[in-house]
Amino acid sequence: MANLREIRGRIKGVKNTSKITQAMKMVAAAKLRRAQDAILSARPYSNAMRGLIKHLLSKIDRTLLPLMNEREETNAVLIVVITADRGLCGAFNSNIIKIATNRIHGEFADLHAEGKVELLCIGRRGLQHFSKRGYPIADSFIGLSDSPEFLNIRSIAQEITQAFLDGKYDRVEIVYNEFKSVVQQRQKAEPMLPIPSTEFDAAHDDLDDEPSHEYIDYIYEPSSIELLETLVPRHLNFQLWRCILESNAAEQGARMTAMDAATSNAKDLIQSLQLEYNQARQASITTEILEIVSGANALAES
Q1: Which of 5, 111, 112, 202 could crosslink 116 through cysteines, CB 3.0-4.6 Å?
Q2: Under a CB-based contact definition with an 8 Å cutoff, are residues 193 and 160 in contact?
Q3: pTM of the entire structure?
């Protein structure tokens, strides 16, 4: 009977776990919907700003903008790593950590050996991993993944931009998960600063619905260069905001998929344990019947 009690306890525990994973899946599904809505809402602003900057850049020399100027030498690098604050989302965090580690020990191996590669960690998981292993952490931000606010993200982007302009870093990269679908996330390592010359090229432009605005020759006041000096930093703020929104949506999709798989596995385990319980119970009943019959035969013979 002790064996039966043990199996019943395991079945009860797995059922409770199944309820938790099912609830987490539903919560992740609701958060994913909000994250997708946030991405869609941000696209018109992003498209309009990209189109305006592209139009202005066609009128000036890009080297006049410090944020788009390639440094002759790369002496210091900052890598922005965006992970989640929590686990239970499959390989979401480990994939990003792997990409960032490969960048550090691959592309920037020489600079890393000199201690000139620093990390800015957005998310608890990335911070825990890299800090435990002695990687230089320039700064860290926790608690942004669940409910990202643009004002908080803007302050981070401004901090990064100022460090680049001050010459603390010659190159800034961002590593994050791009949301593709509920079951698919794509790990990306993109240059953030200096802004690549191809950032505003036609191949990177999403403005396909109204292409006619590109050919209108507007008169800008103040000058084009003054407008760009204001718009380009805002574009960087928004780019970091977009990456965090993408990461948030990807995290919820990964957690939803992981919890769905965990719930399915729990159901399979419950069925297996129930079968084991029935077999043990049947064996116990058979043993008791045999003992009763044996006892009755012994009494009859005596």
Answers
A1: 111
A2: yes
A3: 0.85
